[in-house]
Amino acid sequence: MSDRSHSMRGAGFGPVLAAQRAYAQQAEGRSKFGLVVPEAFIRGIRDLGYRGNGDAIAELIDNAIQAYADRVDVVFGYAGSSSGKKPVQLAVIDNGHGMEPSMIRMAVMWGGTHREGDRKGLGRYGYGLPCSSVSLGRRFTVYSQVAGSGLHAVSLDLDDLAAGAYTDTVGDIVVPKPVQASLPPFVQQQLARAYPSGWHCGTVVVIDKLDRLEWSTAHGLRENLSRQFGATYHKLRNETALYVDDRFVEPVDPLFLTPHFHLHALDDDRANAFDPIRIEARNPENRSYMGAINLRYSWLPPSFGSIDKGRDAVGLNANERFAILKEYHGLVFSRNGRLIDVQTRTPWTTFINNDRYIKVEIEFSAALDEAFGVTTSKQQVTVSPFIWDLLRRHGLPKAIEQLRNKVREAKAIRRMVALWPGEGEQRVSERAMGVASTGVPREASQSASRTRPALSPYQVRIEHAAKGPFFRIEEAGDVRILHLNSAHRFYDQIYDAPASNAEFRAALEVLLFSLGDVILDCDGESDGFGQAHVISWSARLEAALSMLASHLSQDSGQGEEDDGGEPEGG
Ligand SMILES: Nc1ncnc2c1ncn2[C@@H]1O[C@H](COP(=O)(O)OP(=O)(O)OP(=O)(O)O)[C@@H](O)[C@H]1O
Ligand SMILES: [Mg+2]
pLDDT digit string (tens) for 394-418? Predict the structure, then answer.
């Protein structure tokens, strides 16, 4: 305990108790002591549970999927808004079995569910619909119709609730009765588009007074929600088609193992799978079956997130996959086929940036909710020691190490290939120079190509020119050629010295290309001035390197001349 809390204990009780007394006295005026304090409930409930808009809207999609909808639309409305860009209403529309009026009323209530104790589907608490709706806006309406009957609706407005509009004569807060209703125009328009032969049953949740949107434009909302839902529901897409703003949401497997899913075959790179594992969780006391866990593994080639495969996925060189690599980085947890969390920490290891190229998915059945610490909002897991131990015994830590090794090996091979190109392939320095500092290839004609260009506008050549400069740069058409002079001491003592290596040579080539660029650009204006400088540098460098060599050979003593080096003074 700190000093501060000690002094608080001594001096702070009085005022706190006084504040409590004042609050309770004021509450005496209440006619009823219901379990919740309405104003406080409204204040607090809005902030409970959801990491973002996507997670909240997903609750409504969960409900639609559980109602056997084969199409779900997330759409935006702009009624009364001055801008056509920022939505003021949001609706989730499904064609599931719908609800009878009395159930609509229950669905609006916190805790209202017909799925109590059910672990087969996505929902079980009776909180999803109202909690997610109020986390987005201050008013929501549930419209629903079962086949062969009319549309009914119940609205709940938090401002009205706070003003006492739902409080009855004895002080209870009562959810309004369902009434016959018609859908707002923006929902009707989408229904006409999506169901040309009519919408016969289903549910529409409309959220108004949207004061909690994370993106200020429909475009931003659509792109981000689509990406999230594409991954969240990728395993449930045989059953349900998802649309955001009337655009089909492509399913994305964050392990990139499912053929025909979006981004799986974006280019020639493919994810590599390890064998999946099925684990049966059993009660440690009586060995009774509790539920199943399925592990999937993949590792990705180092160029998986890159457009130009020769370079890392940074800045403009990141392809569409890269956002998924970043967002689903760590252990991906999936509950009854629906992604609910991603975590980078395990008891044995923490995922770092480099681990973006290894993927692990832990799919568990909702029967194991307690063991996975699933919360009411179902957006989060807190894995219990029992489950970690089970995962360890079934080889998860070992598999993570093996996946890492695969990526390490692949990176080493990629590096070798870059440093020792094959016949007719570009050197790494030539490729590096071919891309301007903005990340865009220097020659516009090559920017269109996603693969490595066959001919770079930069080339390295070795020439033997006695008494020539240590390098010269030549412009031949649109190609800039760096000639390295093997007759100059620079070549043997620096570029190709015993301590040099492929990486160092590539760096020197880039250095000289850069000097060469400036020289050529200067010489365009002041004829030959730059090249003349190189000749002076070369003479000075030859003399200095000669002196350096003589110092080094003296230092290393007489007996070391049998090292295969060239005789001095050649
Ligand atoms: N789109 C829908 N179609 C048909 N019935 C629905 C729909 N959405 C909700 N319901 C009904 O309303 C009830 C309440 O939904 P809500 O999301 O609040 O709870 P839940 O899905 O049962 O549990 P959870 O809190 O885990 O989501 C559901 O049990 C279901 O009976
Ligand atoms: Mg639900």
Answer: 999 999 999 999 999 999 898 888 8
For residues 242 and 290, state if they share a domain. Answer: no
User: How far apart are the CA of 128 and the centre of ligand 2, in A?
Assistant: 4
Cα→Cα distances 105→175, 258, 530, Å: 7, 41, 83
Q: Which amino acid, one-letter code, is at 268? A: D
Averaged over 135-141, what is the pLDDT?
95
| Same-domain pairing of 404 and 434 | no
3-state secondary structure of 302: coil
Does 563 map to a domain? Answer: no
* Tokens found for residue 52: 């973002």
Q: Which domain holds residue 306?
A: 272-419
Residue type at position 57 = I
| Pocket of ligand 1 contains residue 64 by CB under 6 Å | yes
The total number of structural domains in the chain stands at 3
Nearest residue CA, atom 28 of ligand 1? Answer: 113
CA nearest to 54, candidates 253, 227, 202, 250: 227
Task: Looking at the structure, tell me whether residues 62 and 198 fall in a common domain.
Answer: yes
For the Cβ of 230 lying below 6 angstroms from any atom of ligand 1, the answer is no
Domain-ending residue, one of 248, 282, 315: 248
Helix (H) or strand (E) holding 339: strand 338-343
Ligand 1 touching residue 379 (CB < 6 A):
no
pTM of the model: 0.81
Check if 338 has its Cβ closer than 6 Å to any atom of ligand 1. no
β-pairing, 247-248 vs 289-299, is: unpaired
Instruction: Please report, for the domain that includes residue 223, its CATH number.
Output: 3.30.565.10
Query: Are 373 and 455 within one domain?
Result: no
